[in-house]
Amino acid sequence: MNFHNIKFEASYGTKNQLPPSDLPEIAFAGRSNVGKSSMINKIFNRKSLARVSSVPGKTVTINFFRLDEVRFADLPGYGYAKVSHSEKARWSDLMEGYFNSGRNLKMVFLLLDMRHPPSDHDLMMLDFLRSSGYPFTIVLTKADKLSRTQQQARLADFSREIPDADGLQLIPFSAKTGEGVAELHAIIEQVSLSNM
Questions:
Q1: Among candidates 182, 165, 111, which has minimal Cα distance to 143?
Q2: Residue 172 belongs to domain with CATH number
Q3: Chain centroid to CA 45
Q4: Hey, is 26 helix, strand or coil?
Q5: DSSP for 113-147?
Q6: How far apart are CA 188 and CA 107, in angstroms?
């Protein structure tokens, strides 16, 4: 799979705009400013495929990309407090519309900041993915900001902070050093091959 060949398809801001799910999909989810855009750019070795912003809550649409016969969905970040009630309602409606529209969803990468315990929003998202039966992998972003010893300590903490963590796949990731890229490539290729 040539990851560099990914192409941007479209952005949608309301559930009524969402196209039918005619290909296997892989989604990226996580709270605002967790590093989704940086991760997407690193995975696909493209500098500005996904727009990176230092301002939380910048991605307010679902952005679709396509590589071969797989579609990728960059979901808007959750949990950013400084948005209006109407914007939160639109976000909620869009996300519910996405997950409840019969998507051919083969994997959700749930991004958590490795430096901190999961937020209430993170745990709610985790609970939703579990109860919905969607396959998911937890990606621990910003791993380069911790030493190896700190990483090991945080991994041990996550096993206590995440309910029923046994059996969950947690991948430390750094958009700066490339740590975790090979593991994510392998998962994406496995998902793609299972649909051929």
A1: 111
A2: 3.40.50.300
A3: 17
A4: strand
A5: ETTSPPPHHHHHHHHHHHHHT--EEEEEE-GGGS-
A6: 8
Residue 82's alpha-carbon distances to 60, 66, 71, 175, 183, in angstroms, are: 13, 32, 31, 26, 34
Position 15 scores a pLDDT of: 85
Helices and strands counted in the chain (H then E)? 5, 7
Helix, strand, coil percent values for the chain (each to nearest 5): 35, 20, 40
Backbone angles phi, psi at 47, to 5 degrees: -70, -35
**Domains identified in the chain, total number:** 1
Specify the residue for token string 């096993």.
159
Interhelix angle for 36-43 vs 181-193, to 10°?
70
Query: From CA 49, how far away is CA 91, in angstroms rounded?
Result: 22
Alpha helices (runs of H) in 23-119, residue ranges in sequence order = 36-43, 85-99
DSSP at 44:
T
Residue 65 identity (one-letter amino acid):
F
Contact status, residue 26 vs residue 73, Cβ threshold 8 Å? yes
Per-residue pLDDT of 23-78, as tens digits, reads 999 999 999 889 998 999 999 988 777 665 444 444 578 999 999 999 999 998 88
- Containing domain of residue 152, as a range? 3-193
Q: Which helix (H) or strand (E) holds 62?
A: strand 62-67
What's the token pair of residue 160? 């206590």
Burial of residue 164 (number of CB atoms within 10 Å: 0-12, 13-18, 19+): exposed
